Amino acid sequence: MDDLIKKHLQDILTAVEEIESFFGHKPKLFEDFYSNLCLRRAIERNIEIIGEAMNRI
Fold it and tell me: Which Pfam families does the UniProt entry name for this protein (predicted)?
């Protein structure tokens, strides 16, 4: 597998893990997401990273 593809896959994995870490071991509730602007922006940014990486694969 091409090294650049591996890098993009790693970027996707890192972004997903970061999103999961924002909630810890608490249930993922929409209310928690929606009521916290900082959390929303962080998750949105990681989704952008995932999308960009997928476009480049």
Answer: HepT-like
| Rounded Cα distance, 42 and 53, in Å | 17
CB 11 within 8 A of CB 49: yes
Radius of gyration of the chain measured on its C-alpha atoms = 13
Give the mean model confidence (pLDDT) for residues 37-53.
97
Distance between CA atoms of residues 10 and 32, nearest Å: 27
Shortest CA distance to 19 belongs to which of 43, 40, 39, 3?
43
Torsion, CA 41, CA 53, CA 19, CA 46, rounded to 10: -10
pTM of the model: 0.84
**Of the candidates 7, 25, 4, 3, the residue with the CA atom closest to the CA atom of residue 15:** 7
